[in-house]
Write a structure and sequence with these properties.
Chains A, B: It comes from Streptomyces hoynatensis. 2 copies of one chain form a homodimer. With about 350 residues, chain A is an alpha/beta fold. Chain A has 11 helices and 12 strands. Chain B binds a DNA duplex (30 and 30 nucleotides) through helix 2 and helix 4.
DNA sequence: CGGCCCAACTAATACGTATTAGAAAGGGGG
DNA sequence: CCCCCTTTCTAATACGTATTAGTTGGGCCG
């Protein structure tokens, strides 16, 4: 800041001039490593001294242009991660990605441009910004498939947190084993004597929902219970779930509910409202288990029976997988499935033996 | 992924070949803007079509190498931001930086490499990684001055969140007005009749501490109270603050405490312990005000009288300042001071009229 | 018909680094 | 004294884009 004139950053050429060597020599010394032992010790020191004096630092863009890696991992989310109301849900993922990225010696690039929901796109502006990073971790429920397909087609290395499938390519991912977790939940309920278990399903037919559905059916099959498609309810509007409605279901013979939390938390909120209304007591009148973590874990809400994603661990695994991908010459998809943790909670219990007349439909 | 052979990303040259034009023309069409209206409409369409068909996306490294800017803002913290125990303190800064970065159309680069405390340095590996970004927001209490000096010397654009000074250069920053906030706090206590106000000062003599000290003295002066250097206590170990100790102080005539929270929260924890012990009642026996936010705001702790930093706002301002810096041809330092918000709380009250014999020292 | 200007394009170059082929110097063996 | 090898360095080039100066061809004016 001594003079106001625009100062150019020192380059290897400047160092070369000062040390009386060629730019190539500087490059060999600086980027060190393998080929640098063919440099005389005196020269090497001269170069390093000059670099020091000039305050040299490598131009990462140039380095990366040349084809080398630039030691950046990207994190791209299909939903905004930071807004406070979703903070508690996404934070562990963020935390895990950050930790493991650092542990692997990379820096983390958060793609945040154009948070305005509509424009939130990988391919905004004609430039695929993701490619500034060596590879990318992707996250989020509302995936735009075309973009994923394009990424796969371009052979860009990325790992999704959560199972995602796309036509015409294999996607690497770290996914929670919703199938087993859901099946086990059904098994637990069956062991408690439940026969008619209603599954409240998310509206969007994303992979996590498909997996839970598969787990539901598998659980029923393994418990020897019949499958009744009327017992899968897709909710367009979670507000439909009211005390009266739940009582109707109970009247029709349902003794347990499985609820799939959505990222907007409205279903869980509706169920909590039913709980507080006193119209239905969980688990005395009806058992209730959540197929995942409620996004907003306020701490004041009930301790629902549920299973829980190891989110920090998943995120760390995703980064590890990504780094492995980068080391491979050809990108073959890698997949990892991690088990969910069962949280006992207090909202399931034995199936009621018989119903009084007040429950008749 | 159709074939396992490594596929090269399409470049402007590929497009040019396909569209039967030159690379320069492609560049003009793609990067659009001003000079692109000298291109015939037919040509432009041909180029765009070819780009589309090839799935072109610009190489950001090359673009940035050429133009100098790559639309990245960096965030560098001198302490780890993510670890959960400091999460609540730093999160608002992170949030603000992220929001405003996105709003300004930049992406955010988190410098996380080498979180291992010792190696956590801007100049790790001989290359100043910060410079991958166009500019940088810095954050944290445990600053390494040499690094700041070097950054200034290199004329790298950055903004510190918090006032930081360094010899041989002007640093841009967004700072909370600790001076006024502290002075006002003293004024408040003086108005309540307090005459001997003990200031518990942080051990490290960083700028925030200097500002509070200045505010303390200014507040005393404006209230017409004498300055007594014995009333400034530097605590090497916050554990020294015990109920007995506070009673000693009270015995020596002190009627109010000003405490400067440290980022490890130990002082506030010690005071909370004193409060819980019942040995001293705040504010009946002694008034107590915090000169800032306790880092760990658990919600269960007392509602201390204090002032509070507009952290999200400060972070956003820092990003705005940074973007302004980038627009300037020559970097002149820019500074911004934002007021703190007074939080009444319940830990200050009128000075006790007289003391019983149990308080004598 | 010659000169000139304009529209539409292209050739050439710079950006900073990594890498490779090869040059220059020095030494040792025949 | 020549040849070859080793050590140590350099020249040249590629990476993909943006930009500037310049080229081409055609139309218009005098």
């Amino acid at each position: 800041m001594a003079s106001s004139e625009r100062r150019r950053r020192p380059t290897q050429v400047d160092i070369a001039r000062r040390a009386g060597v060629s730019q190539a020599t500087v490059s060999l010394v600086i980027s060190g490593g393998a080929a640098s032992d063919q440099i005389a010790e005196a020269t090497r020191r001269a170069v390093l001294t000059a670099a020091e004096e000039l305050g040299y630092s490598a131009n990462v863009a140039a380095r990366s242009l040349k084809g080398g890696r630039n030691h950046l991992l990207g994190l791209y989310t299909f939903e905004p991660v930071f807004p406070t109301d979703q903070r508690d849900f996404y934070y562990p993922f963020l935390l895990g990605v950050e930790e493991e990225t650092a542990a692997q010696g990379y820096d983390l690039l958060l793609f945040s441009s154009v948070t305005s929901a509509a424009d939130r796109s990988i391919y905004a502006g004609g430039a695929n910004r993701l490619k500034l990073a060596d590879g990318c971790v992707l996250l989020g429920r509302h995936v735009r498939r075309e973009e994923l397909t394009a990424l796969v087609k371009e052979d860009f290395p990325f790992v999704f947190i959560g199972r995602r499938e796309v036509e015409g390519g294999e996607i690497s991912y770290v996914a929670a084993d919703y199938v087993s977790a859901t099946a086990q939940m059904v098994a637990r309920l069956a062991a408690l004597g439940h026969r008619r278990i209603l599954y409240l399903r998310a509206a969007q037919n994303s992979e996590p929902t498909q997996d839970r559905t598969a787990g539901y059916r598998r659980g029923l099959a393994e418990a020897g219970l019949p499958f009744d498609s009327a017992l899968i309810r897709t909710l367009d509007d979670p507000a439909e779930v009211t005390g009266a409605r739940v009582r109707e279901w109970i009247g029709s013979g349902v003794t347990a509910l499985l609820a799939e939390p959505t990222e907007d938390d409205r279903l869980v909120a509706a169920l909590a409202a039913v709980d507080r209304s006193g119209l239905v007591r969980f688990p005395e009148d009806c058992s209730l288990a959540l197929l995942g973590d409620p996004p907003l874990w306020t701490g004041e809400s009930r301790d629902w029976t549920r299973f829980s994603l190891p989110r920090v661990g998943m995120a760390r695994e995703a980064v590890r997988l990504l780094v492995e991908l980068l080391a491979q010459p050809a990108h073959t998809a890698r997949r990892l499935s991690v088990p969910c943790e069962f949280v006992p909670g207090d909202s399931i219990g034995p199936a009621p033996a018989g119903r009084g007349p007040e429950w008749s439909a």
